Predict the structure.
Amino acid sequence: MNFLEVKNMPKILIVEDEESIRSFIKVNLIRHNYTVLEAASGEEAIELANKQPDIKIALLDVMLPGIDGFAVCQQLRETYPQLGIIMLTAKGQEADKIEGLALGADDYIVKPFSPQELMARIAALLRRINLPILNDPIKLLTTGSFSLNLLEKKLYKNDTEINLTPTELAIFNLFMHNENIALSRDNILNEVWGTDYFGDIKVVDVNIRRIRKKIADNEHTYIESVWGYGYRFQGDVTDE
């Protein structure tokens, strides 16, 4: 393990078995004054995460020796709901992107990538982690059975905590501020991922599916699809 700490800067874990790629990422992170940790395998990454629970973001390659990036992503997400995860995928591997997002990754970046794109993705994810996104003095949002505590970065439904990833939490924050309003996919993408986001708009749909699965009950899904446009959140619903 290599560990270069910069005081008071976010810790970022690079999980990549190819030393040349790992070194490329490390150099650019150091240039931006991030604290950098490195792992060459999934097992090493999990061990590091357990020893350094204050890691903010894991840059996680899909193809790793031993347990692959998908298994690492799933385990890290279950153990550390607030950890930011960016998957590193091969060019053209569409299935890898979708699988990674479905398992809880916040974002993905396709190799080869530029330093500018990498830094933009990291900065955008840190914004989502550091809620609230919206410049609002209100720190507790409630509607129906839902309560979103922005100070704790926790969502509750009927007083039961629902674990959301940083990206899911940011989306739910946006929905809570725009209840019963149809939001386009582009609007959600710009507000949550940022107007400088390089990726595919499908990332919105995958995250919405994950949120629905976590909050739905036998009576309601709470997030309605607006065909050909986007989504509408209705938290305060009543039975007909």
Remarks:
- The chain has a mean pLDDT of 87.
- The helical segments are 19-31, 42-51, 69-79, 94-102, 115-129, 166-177, 185-192, 202-215.
